[in-house]
Design goal:
The chain has about 230 residues and is mainly alpha-helical. Helices cover about 75% and strands about 0% of the residues.
């Protein structure tokens, strides 16, 4: 068991104090938001910084009944889940094919995916708006899901190609000798080995793109019934 060192403790004390102050700065706004949500309107205007005298759920009831926040929340859940699922599935198969292929055509295709990452999403807003209007998906959750899938596939493939290239081919060769098909090798052998990279791209696509994204939703969702949580708030 390591002995307590007073000199080492005092040497780390300034860092500990800074980390403690930083934790207070980060956590206090969250604590204030939660406690304020249990206040009535009169109590909030009387003293915004005090703790609630009584626990009131009036704000939560109004949010679900009057503001339909539950409906908007389900829209916000649908929009990320469907695109992320399709995007990761397609990108997983595409990244594996590109990483394992040796032909010049696949190398050219890989460069095409890489070059598409340099196109800002703002440049595609007008063209996507017109395209979705022609196919009658402008004010639709499915139309928004299709946009997210098509926009995020290049980025997801870019991340997965690097990991797929690091997996030794000997695993696939050994399984193919045992009689495994390409589909079984991909989903039962490569899939579990790529679990960490798949979780990474799922988190990036879910939080950074589909869940917190605002510009595409504000342009393509005009009816209140199809609005998301981000727009409704």
């Amino acid at each position: 068991m390591q002995k307590f060192s007073f000199r080492k403790f005092m040497g780390n004390l300034p860092i500990r104090i800074l980390l403690l102050l930083y934790s207070v700065v980060v956590l206090y706004p969250l604590f204030w938001t939660i406690t304020t949500s249990f206040k009535t309107t009169e109590e909030f205007y009387e003293n915004p910084w005090s703790l609630p005298s009584t626990i009131s759920f009036t704000n939560y009831v109004s949010a679900f009944e009057k503001a339909s926040i539950g409906h908007y929340f389900m829209n916000s859940v649908f929009v990320p889940v469907v695109p992320v699922t399709l995007c990761v599935l397609v990108s997983f198969m595409g990244a594996y094919a590109i990483a394992r292929a040796k032909s010049k055509a696949m190398r050219w295709l890989r460069n095409v995916y890489m070059s598409s990452l340099f196109i800002p999403s703002a440049f595609m807003i007008v063209s996507l708006f017109l395209l979705l209007g022609k196919i009658h998906l402008l004010d639709s959750l499915w139309g928004l899901a299709i946009v997210y899938v098509s926009v995020h596939i290049p980025y997801t493939i870019f991340l997965l190609i690097g990991f797929m290239s690091s997996i030794p081919r000997e695993y696939e060769e050994a399984d193919s000798i045992d009689g495994c098909s390409n589909t079984k090798i991909l989903f039962q052998i490569i899939g579990p080995m790529a679990k960490s990279s798949l979780v990474t791209v799922i988190i990036f696509n879910f939080m950074g793109a589909a869940w917190n994204e605002w510009s595409c939703r504000s342009l393509r969702q005009r009816r209140s019934g199809h609005s998301s949580w981000v727009l409704s708030i």
